[in-house]
Write a structure and sequence with these properties.
The chain is built from 8 helices and 14 strands. It is α/β, with parallel strands linked by helices.
């Protein structure tokens, strides 16, 4: 892996001219979990002016419509993007199509209470313990985690499959690092449990995004803030990728605003991937 040709730029303006579409991460790129980045709004407007097709892709364990509503509340106008695809939406769709999941099952939800409604409206229901569950739905780190390890062990003993609605390990919300469902999934796998992952870096979400854009991988740039998901996932399906240092890897920027390329190299070696471009922000 070489970094001598890594294109460093303050923003995407001088690189997006080579593409017809953008697959754009949300958390850490467009907003910080609380408010939108002003420069990201400007960038989205410029992308529209250049007639670029933009699909927002997120490992949010929420329905796409709910994420759109949250974006609009932050001032991100619906006209600035063509579609939003979330890992939560893919999970929901898995129970409404021919994906092999039963439509009348019961499940144990592991995650914050505010994310418990992901499967609302479907003919399946949540139960309070693993004894009555057919599968586990992991949406995030539970607010009350005192019995989490016991619950994971009990679910594994019953051989319950886990559906992970957010493969991220962590996310920044207003500068605070919050553990995501990916941590639960990795713990469950370590116990020997079987996990179905939905979202980045897995191919399904990129295939749907490319379908929405109506473009081939060669015509699209994927921009995100995580090497483990955005960069690894984009590269795996043949996309050019750009890493933005406004999210989970913001600590790679020194006090003078320059990137720590040695730390970035180490990070990329860990996940066996690397971005084509490096952006300080979506300026």
């Amino acid at each position: 892996m070489t970094f001598d040709r890594l294109w460093q730029a303050n923003g995407p303006a001088n690189i997006i001219g080579s593409y017809r579409g953008i697959i754009l991460d949300i958390f850490g790129v467009i907003h910080d979990g609380v408010s939108a980045f002003a420069e990201a709004l400007v960038a989205l407007e410029r992308m529209q002016e250049q007639r670029l097709r933009v699909c927002l892709v997120s490992n949010s364990p929420r329905r796409s419509r709910d994420v759109v509503a949250r974006l609009e509340a932050m001032g991100v106008q619906r006209a600035l993007f063509h579609e939003v695809i979330t890992s939560g939406e893919l999970v929901y769709e898995a129970f409404t199509g021919s994906h092999g999941f039963p439509v009348d099952a019961t499940y144990l939800h592991l995650g914050p209470a505010e994310l418990s409604g992901l499967l609302s409206g479907l003919p399946i229901r949540a139960v309070s313990n693993e004894e009555n569950a057919a599968f586990v739905l992991a949406t995030g780190w539970p607010e009350d985690d005192a019995t989490l390890d016991r619950a994971l062990v009990a679910c594994h003993e019953r051989n319950l499959p886990m559906i992970c609605a957010n493969p991220d390990l962590e996310v920044l919300i207003g500068g605070r690092r919050v553990a995501c469902a990916g941590v639960l999934a990795r713990r469950y796998e370590a116990l020997g449990g079987h996990v179905f992952f939905y979202g980045k870096p897995y191919p399904q979400i990129y295939a749907k995004a490319l379908s929405v854009l109506g473009l081939s991988a060669a015509e699209v740039l994927a921009i995100g803030d995580s090497v483990a998901t955005d960069i690894k996932g984009g590269r795996a399906v043949g996309l050019d990728t750009a890493l933005v240092l406004t999210g989970v890897h913001g600590d790679l920027l020194s006090s003078d605003g320059s990137p720590d390329l040695d730390a970035l190299r180490s990070l990329c070696q860990r996940f066996d991937t690397n971005p084509k471009y490096l952006l300080r922000s979506l300026a």
